[in-house]
Please model this.
Amino acid sequence: MLRVLHILLWVAAIPFSFSACQGKNKTTINVTCAPRFEQRGDFVYLVIRDSIHSYEVGYSMPPRVVFLPVSLDTNRIYTFTISEKPLKGTKFKSSTVLRVQADEKVIYDEEICEVHHTRMQQKKVPILYGLLMRSPDEPPWEDEQKLFPHRNEVVSGGCCPLPEKTEIIYLCNQCKMAYEQWRKQHPSTRK
Ligand SMILES: [Zn+2]
Model:
């Protein structure tokens, strides 16, 4: 069975790429505002808006899936650093939250693993399109998020194929090691 089929189902449905995009024509913008959340279908979007800019990024898919692992208070002011780049072959742009600061303290940084608190390495990985099913002998989703959220060397591009074939994402060595440990404790029943 192809290993690619084992990767995360949750990203398959996300309507735009949420992971770290580092490409040509990328711009970085700071927006200082109180966040807002909007539920649309299965997704909760984080709305980041000031008098000039307006961004909406996928925040979670309740009750189990969180795309942006940072708690935000809608009554509090944060500074969001957003990366924006054109989506190849479309008129759309993809927006990624790079950092979140509260009172000048960084509370989220996409380069830092939220589990291991280590700086991650970038790697170019393939984008897979279509509905990606999780193998039954892969870790439960909760374990994946709690123990090794940055180990997968593949990105889901959603159900509608785009010209983009690869993407640069952040990977955590400690997540990979934690997954290997989990794998040893839960031997695969498949060949
Ligand atoms: Zn990690």
In short: The radius of gyration is 17 Å. The chain has one domain: 3-185. Helices lie at 141-147, 173-185.
